[in-house]
Write a structure and sequence with these properties.
Blueprint lengths: L1 E7 L3 E7 L6 E8 L3 H14 L2 E8 L9 H16 L3 E6 L3 H11 L4 H29 L1
Parallel strand pairs: 1-4, 4-5
Antiparallel strand pairs: 1-2, 2-3
Helix pairs in contact: 3-4
């Protein structure tokens, strides 16, 4: 039973997947957004290929907790995945994950061109790891 996370962006979608025990997140891929349907086709294939049972979609609320255009886009992807697949799809508050991923890459002295290629994947890892840690914490109580 694996969990997969998607960081939905305008140009790219970062993808991360958990290990079989659901303890750690690893960056998997980046999907180039050409259209919502082509993106959903690629997401569906990755979900099937990795035997995923739970999908986490990053949900970028505004800092004041309101819902903006990017969060609405995440909701549309969540609903489309639920219609296409027999998996649990959850939204996960991902405020500042992309900024955190950028900071991590800057601290690691990764060049700008390389950062652009992996920042979405790193953001997906942060989303998934936060979800996994929260889920593990709740089950251990």
């Amino acid at each position: 039973m694996r969990t997969m996370a998607f960081d939905i962006g305008d140009k790219r979608i970062g993808v991360a997947v958990s290990d079989l025990l659901g303890l750690t997140a690893q960056g998997l891929d980046t999907i180039q957004v050409r259209s919502i349907n082509s993106s959903l086709d690629e997401m569906e294939q990755l979900i099937h290929d990795n035997e995923v049972t739970t999908v986490v979609v990053g949900y970028p609320k505004n800092m004041d907790g309101t819902i903006g255009p990017r969060a609405e886009k995440s909701i549309r992807y969540k609903e489309a995945l639920e219609e296409r697949l027999d998996v649990t799809v959850k939204l996960w508050d991902e405020r500042l994950t992309t900024m955190s991923a950028q900071r991590t890459l800057l601290e690691a002295d990764v060049s700008r061109s390389k950062r652009k290629k992996v920042v979405d994947k790193i953001a997906a890892v942060l989303i998934l790891q936060g979800f996994l840690d929260n889920t593990a914490h709740k089950t251990s109580l």
